[in-house]
């Protein structure tokens, strides 16, 4: 297999001398180093260019943020003027001048492609239109159009962030910080700006309508939502970069506290209808909070982001210089050693060639000393051993008969199967161990060809392969230091795996080959069994092996994954390590009785992980017994079935309960009603079924929205349930009108075990008056 894999390289190298071999290797090395260096340079240079572009993007974000801030202030001022506070009109002209200057600054910094883009052109046109027309609008319309324009400015800012790769940072701390600057902080400040504008108009009129109350409540909820994400982002930034954690924590607390003060002011003075604060004071108070947020972004968040990106650029450039320096150093060092290896090998080879020629000329005293410690030294030592061997053969000649007699007696007495063949591939002798193991006698296989026609089976390719291996051993004695392993078909038809080793014995009449065949069939089977057992032990299910005293001996990786205990923590303990306390003593008594009776036990059980979490598992315990039937080990396999349990609970809730009110649905009501009717008929009791229908519920959905309708249904469901007994049942039953629209305004109540009809009537009147009182 190795020869086939490296055949092209072997063929090429065999055709080249050492000089050309090293030239080829040197060229390959230089090309590889050049490719690696170029790839490294391109990668690091790309990081540096991207980071530089991100810095340019941050510079462009600054004037856009200022424009958004001024437009939010313009929104609040115009809403106050349209609400009746003319004192705020003078500040609007100043604010429009600031917005125009911010737009000019943005245009100066925008690249040519974005200046001519449709988004930027529309933003400028819409602002000019809004600046001219707002005095002719209502306060609500002015607030809506301002909000729309600010939202589109924020979208434009996000597009610029994408174009300048600000949203694709590789450093996690910079990513969360930039996301806060681009998305989280502007969104929170925009919600606060809308609260400022809406509240200024309300305080100017000193009155608030129901829709305005609802809108203000929605804005406060959205602001709290944005604040939560803002805090999460800044906390993550600080966690991944402890150096800036302290200033970010202080800034986060300052922003959250200021915005919560605004929320408290709106709740206590505007939504409640007190109107103690004047529109000017309210505008100034909220503006101060918003301006503080923009200051934090301009003076803290943006500089920190720029510092992180600048540090990344410096780090990348330093790495680029370092890696290029290392590459150049390697480029110089490796050729130096290449040249040294070349001269060392050529010198050793020339010394070997010279000594071989001297030996061939008849000088048996020739000896080689290369002075190296590599493989060539082993070649030289082998040459010296060959010389010593030849000298020994010349000095001592043993009689062939004595050698043959001694060899035959050793082979006959050996328990190892042995074959002797001559140099013409004739098998001259088989020892008794061979005949007993394989069933063939000498007359059955007089030659190697006969042997392979009988022993290698019916597969011609396998016969050809094994014959070649045998030929190498018998004729060339190739396997004297490298035994060959193959399969042999016995005369009985069974197959055995053998390990064959060959050696040559020189005699005056010629050399004979002695081949020893070691039967390793049992060892191969044992190895296969061990591989199967190892694979089976590392299945996806957790596995735990204990001794008879329940001491854990071994666990697999699935055990660690499910329980959290490592093998070192589990081994030596007992399974009580996982005990949750959910099963009583009777449960375990039943388990041990089943193990003693059947040899195995299977059930579901609650166990405890290392972290303390209790989880369900499906477990099977099998007892391993000895010859006397006594348990020596216990093997437990189990799997975490938490997902299946949760899925069963979710399916049950979806089938039998209403997703909005969490009350039983039509299916569960019908099942409970059928059961109650059977019980009442059997025991002679009474039951009552009542339906509560919410009048004009569609009007609520159409006027206040489906969110308000859903909240009403939840409150009514809670009120009804609180006034019924535990044995009673209340269900929400969805109905379908003629237009196939789902309703949801019907509640069915089932009262069991009542004494008088009047009792049901009183319960119905009590529930109707209590459940439908809006409060």
From TrEMBL:
What are the residue boundaries of the PAC domain, all occurrences included?
A: 601-653
A Pfam entry, by short name: HAMP
Residue ranges of the HAMP domain? 343-395
**Keyword set, alphabetical order:** Membrane, Transmembrane, Transmembrane helix
Gene3D superfamilies in the cross-refs: 3.30.70.270, 6.10.340.10, PAS domain
Q: Which InterPro entries match?
A: DGC-Regulatory_Protein, GGDEF_dom, HAMP_dom, Nucleotide_cyclase, PAC, PAS, PAS-assoc_C, PAS-like_dom_sf
Q: Which SMART domains match?
A: GGDEF, HAMP, PAC, PAS
- The portions of this protein that span the membrane are 21-41, 322-345
**Span of domain PAS:** 403-445, 528-574
What's the protein called, per UniProt?
Answer: PAS domain S-box protein
What is the species listed in this Swiss-Prot or TrEMBL entry?
Candidatus Methylobacter oryzae
Q: What is the lineage of its organism?
A: Bacteria, Pseudomonadati, Pseudomonadota, Gammaproteobacteria, Methylococcales
